[in-house]
Records
---
Amino acid sequence: MPATEEGFASVEDLIRHRYSFDKASQHLGIEVVSAEAGRVTMAMDVQDSMLNGHGILHGGYLFTLGDTVFAFVCESLGHPSVSRQAEITYIAPGGAGSRLIASGVERTRYGRNNIVDVTIEDQDGQHLAEVRVFGVLVPKK
């Protein structure tokens, strides 16, 4: 359902409203950068508490950021979905003090299913990871 059908002036307004209820993302410092129908960009600053024993970003935080972007991409199209399968390809390690930028786009929708691809880079454009999420539409109550 388009953002205007829900009383929001834009998709970005809808996404920012939905974000206001996402306590996990807020706790991790994930922020909405931009949103339009089918495309969402979010960012997260790497905190020292996110580093593993090697002094690099724990991969689970990259995955969490990617999964979060997936959810908001689905929301941007009015199709709230949950992931049923996801895969991540780690390309380079994230470092302390980095700002991660994750951009997602819905690639296809078929029946109650969809595929969303997310690219994660740091503030310098270093490609860190690719996430592909296979989602399923959440049934309406």
---
Amino acid sequence: MNPRTKLLKAVTSESNRSVDVGLLAELFDNTTDMAFFVKDAEGRYIAVNDSLVQRHGWREKSDVIGKRSSEICEGDLGRIPSQQDQRVLRTGKALLNQLEMQWYRPPVMTWCLTTKLPMRDAEGTIVGLIGFSKDVRTQVEPEEIPASFADALAEFEQDLSPEVTPVWFAEKCQLSARRLATLTKKVFDLTPGQFIAKVRIDAATRLLRETNLSVSEIAHQCGFYDHSAFTRAFRKATGTTPRSFRQLAR
């Protein structure tokens, strides 16, 4: 049985009628802020929406179908998603809301929250995965943001102190941890921890693109305790090392 047939049998309704995964891709074709995909047990694209194709600089879905992430996107930005696929397919453990940087359209990059779920057949065997990467672009009216939160955000972005944690933010805003989490989810569609990581990495990417500061100096300025901690966090978020990102950006 070929991979596509296995997936068609795996994606079923309650009445056990097969649903073509291509219909799911068509459903997401008008969601320009989200890349949708279905992959087989080898990590190859079975179905994608138009947004995924366009954001990687390809023209047609047929240019992508049958390929792996590493084959449609060069370097670590393609390799890391393929490694994620292998881990989900091997372990059956879902990847949920992974904050990472991806191409929007080369050379433009955007922050995404990526989710990947394993797909199983009737016997429970993993036959592929389904997922999406949604751009972090939530819009909120200015008056919905408390002044205390805006002040804390400004202080953090100006200093990027390593002491800043979700607890620091909650205390600075005079908000409970639950209220802070609700606020960051509504404003940024991120948890407090994800938001803090995003601000640090955003600042680092700007410094890598626009200055000649060393990686160690940038790590210090962005609130990381050392070069190694910065490199680990940067790779986790962007799929590449700071030095590789600088070369790519330039």
---
Amino acid sequence: MIGEINPTLRRRKLASELRRLREEAGLNGVQVSQALRWSTSKLSRLETGQVAPAAKDVARLLKHYDALGEEGDLLLELAGNHVSKGWWESYSDVLHEIALEYVGLEDGASVISAWHNNVLPGLLQTRAYATELARLYRAVEVATPSQIERRIRVRMRRQQLLTNGRVTYTAVVEEAALRRRFGEADEAMMREQLRHLLRLSLLPNITIHVMLLEQPHPIDLSSFVHLRFPSMPLLGPISSDVVYTEDYPGLELIESEERVYRYSLLFDVLRQAALGEEASRDCIASLAGL
């Protein structure tokens, strides 16, 4: 049994495995499409993860590639074990396409490593803090109060993954982000936000490191999030590692193995330069007035 896999990861895993099987069979897309009497665009959409393949299409491809053993059985199970959409898809009216894809990936990650130098990580924000951030975008784009509220709901819903027992979360946060106030955030709101960070840092799967302003900074780097994923029997990781960067108005999902690896090295440098867990808690507590 492969267990439950969300729609985003299911689609991406099937795409990569079907592409791998075709390449191992020594076939190109035109040859397969002609043999199955499909359009080349249909096969391309399946292999690039633009659409989730139906179980019957996966079965035809497996037969064509002569991949009907245990591995094929797992792929058929993966194709049939799904819900049509993830919860995040219902927010496509207020989220960019790349952001939607990221939320789906984040939802299925097993390890999340985040570096934030200007703002606190979304997964660690209180509703009040997230609300002030969301309201600021009114200065650069038209967003109705209902649209702002829906974006906040997405952020709050995302945070549920921190308590589901499936993910290990590590954040390195610049001290400036702990001190900076956005919008109408007052001292009381920031104190509650910092106390929220302290409570979260006590959870066994969450680690928060603080990078002090007074210490030498190891590198000038904008915020990013690195996602790693669990593995499946025989088929390996559900997805290769992904890095997400967000520098308004540009969003990027980085999947190049070399670039992602570089980000993993950079995160290690940042984590090693930051305060340890206990010292970071002391720093946050001091800023929170505790």
